[in-house]
Amino acid sequence: MFRVENLSKRYKTGDHALKNVSFSIDAGQVVGLIGPSGAGKSTLIRCVNRLVDPTEGSVFLNGRPIARSGSELRRARRRIGMIFQDYALVERLTVMENVLSGRLGYVSFWRSFARRFPQADVEKAFALLDRVSLSQHADKRADALSGGQRQRVGIARALEQDPELLLIDEPTASLDPKTSRQIMRLIVEICRERGLPAIINIHDVALARMFVDRIIGLRAGEIVFDGTPDQLDHAALTAIYGEEDWAVIHNENAEEIETTPHVVETDHAVAGMA
């Protein structure tokens, strides 16, 4: 289980990015984090992995607090997988080398410098590439891949860490609608298979409502909504974003669901499309 208790972030100017935020996430649950720009979504994720130090509050992962500095923080970060909007791949390295970089926190400097990883790590990387439908691209350079394929590499790299939590920052922002659905489906399936809790920072409300188990809405650094996607009604959206014709989003979401094939589309079936 992942738990945040009374998390706050106040800058030297006195402005609050987060105000007394508390919630918990069970194993395998995928939470969509939504809210307007400046609501505190990115700050929350950065406070979890300690890229930003919170002013107050605590973060716990499977009962253990995430330390603020030193070797304990480095060990904690090994337990947190990050998936980035801009993929954060080393373009000149191969797909396999990028996936294996997920083990850098576990091997010695000289092993990582020479890119000589234990055989068990290599075998696991091959299995992960097969799971994300990229095994045939293992020896390609990262810069030869499409956006959807790069995001799949990022997913495999995060899983190579053996994480206990996934933090995912706008995974579909640079992708077309079809690839976005494939990536969201893949993330949700993997989290359920592995019992991984996950937080997805996402601006696409309709996409979040289609795939995540739960939605947390932030506004001005505070949680103003925490519920299931079907509870995200006009009043909830207004509380998060302000007054707008939210019926449009609901209609768009209904159309998306209606036009999505009822046959389950496996990720192996879409290999090479992304």
UniProtKB/TrEMBL annotation:
InterPro entries, per the entry: AAA+_ATPase (IPR003593), ABC_transporter-like_ATP-bd (IPR003439), ABC_transporter-like_CS (IPR017871), ABC_transpr_PhnC (IPR012693), MetN_ABC_transporter-like (IPR050086), P-loop_NTPase (IPR027417)
Keyword Nucleotide-binding on entry: yes
PROSITE patterns in the record: ABC_TRANSPORTER_1 (PS00211), ABC_TRANSPORTER_2 (PS50893)
A GO cellular component entry from the record: membrane
Keywords, alphabetical: ATP-binding, Cell membrane, Membrane, Nucleotide-binding, Translocase, Transport
PANTHER family referenced in this protein's UniProt entry, alphabetically: AMINO ACID IMPORT ATP-BINDING PROTEIN, PHOSPHONATES IMPORT ATP-BINDING PROTEIN PHNC
Domain ABC transporter: 2-245
Organism: Agaricicola taiwanensis
Xref: SMART domains: AAA
The keyword Nucleotide-binding belongs to this UniProt entry's keyword annotation: yes
GO-annotated molecular function: ABC-type phosphonate transporter activity; ATP binding; ATP hydrolysis activity
Gene: phnC
Cited CDD domains: ABC_PhnC_transporter (cd03256)
Record-linked Pfam families: ABC_tran (PF00005)
Protein name: Phosphonates import ATP-binding protein PhnC
